[in-house]
Amino acid sequence: MHQTEPGLLDPRIAVRRSTLADGRELIYFDDADTTLPPERAIDARALDPRPAVAEMRQDPLTGEWVSIAAARQNRVFLPPADADPLAPQTEANPSEIPSTYDVAVFENRSPSFGPDLADWPGSTDGVADAAASALADVRAVGIGRRLPSHGRCEVVCFSPEHEGSFGTQTVSRARTVIEAWAHRTSALSELPGVQQVFPFENRGREIGVTLPHPHGQIYAYPYVTPRTERLLAAIDAYGPTLQADVLERERSGERVLLAAEHWTAYVPFAARWPIEIHLVPNRHVPDLAATTADERDELSRVYLRLLRGVDRLYDTPTPYIAAWHQAPVHEHRDDVRLTMQLTSPRRAADRLKYLAGSEAAMGAWIGDVPPEAQADALRTAIEGVDL
């Protein structure tokens, strides 16, 4: 059963599919050492129909697209623990997930993109031509341009516990989540109209997190994101070896935090945020689906050490965004390397960096902490982590 699943490499991790009451897809990923039975409960709730696909509008001054997703106004905001929408369902808590679980992935009830998909040919019938045409269309610039916000938004629950983050999970659970990320990256990349797949975790109220439950999200965009477009422009200006050359230089420098067989973590040369870390594979890999079993095994430990080290900087947990930047689905697969970029506005135990005029209005950043000093503090914190 497991070997036919897209992107799945560990045969010990079972994938069990289900459907929520309004038709949304729900997928359970069982740990390699799970104690759960294979059966899963049925979602018997009476739910309203899913919202219509949102609309995205183009800013003609930048060429960027903005999704206008009004349904997100109704999403849950900081509920009490007994009303946790990501915990397993009980009579008192009619949540999104009917059964207890190890890791669960489901379609977002109030998505920014989707639930509709583009009207493209199937993945084996003219998809390359359709992708090229769609990319050209979304990159064109005009005034008053509107398009449907096609795509998919999913929620990835790391645990049935009410509170925590990726960094609070076991090594076995971390490995299951990584397998789920790879599985979903592979599956979402096959959907019509999807141009880029983005797994991420927001952690902390300071970041804007509305649910303390340990979880992340995956967005499947109908365009290549602005940050990646900037990277593509830099690759065009420098050459296709840009990210490989950056990694080679960083690995021989003073900002390296972890140097493992398959992965390297470092504070970048021109860090924007008080805490900024890049975690990259040592060989060229375009996305998580392309990683090997050995790379995923090592990542489960390296990533936990990194996140727990970040939390050892101060006496309280550090807010962050952990963003898995992956290559576009249909282009530059040999040029863009998978990179996890962790950023935090925390610049001291009791201080946050707020984006002021230069950063927020002009995109011209001013760093508050020298990257070398932050790398030294992070190395010390990571050395104290024991998995």
Automatic annotation (TrEMBL):
Its cofactor is Zn(2+). SUPFAM superfamilies: HIT-like. Residues 55-224 form the Galactose-1-phosphate uridyl transferase N-terminal domain. The active site is at H215. One of its GO terms (biological process) is galactose catabolic process via UDP-galactose, Leloir pathway. Residues 242-337 form the Galactose-1-phosphate uridyl transferase C-terminal domain. GO terms for cellular component: cytoplasm. GO terms for molecular function: UDP-glucose:hexose-1-phosphate uridylyltransferase activity; zinc ion binding. It is an enzyme of class 2 (transferase). InterPro entries: GalP_UDPtransf1, GalP_UDPtransf1_His-AS, GalP_Utransf_C, GalP_Utransf_N, HIT-like_sf. It catalyses: alpha-D-galactose 1-phosphate + UDP-alpha-D-glucose = alpha-D-glucose 1-phosphate + UDP-alpha-D-galactose. Its EC number is 2.7.7.12. Pathway: Carbohydrate metabolism; galactose metabolism. Keywords: Carbohydrate metabolism, Galactose metabolism, Metal-binding, Nucleotidyltransferase, Transferase, Zinc. Belongs to the galactose-1-phosphate uridylyltransferase type 1 family. This is Galactose-1-phosphate uridylyltransferase. The gene is galT.
